[in-house]
Amino acid sequence: MYALIQIIALLTNIVVMLVIVQFVIGLLFAFNVVNSSNQFLVQVYRSINSLLEPVLGPIRRIMPETGAIDFSPLVLVLGLQILLIVLQGIAY
Length: 92
Prior knowledge:
The chain has 92 residues and is mainly alpha-helical. 79% of the residues lie in helices and 0% in strands.
């Protein structure tokens, strides 16, 4: 059981890092720090979006409209952290 929780924790950490990288690259594009003609960052951003969209899409449909701010990555990270806490509580 401990090994399974460690694997889930590792996957959770990877998803959280992907959300953070997506957020930072999005900010770099939004504030024009990096030009959107930088093909490498555009490809990285698209790849991360394609990985996270199956998870973030349902969260976006459930959440109410908040205008220009997207809180679905925050909800995802909080949900994953709560899942880890519950699993660790069950295992111990």
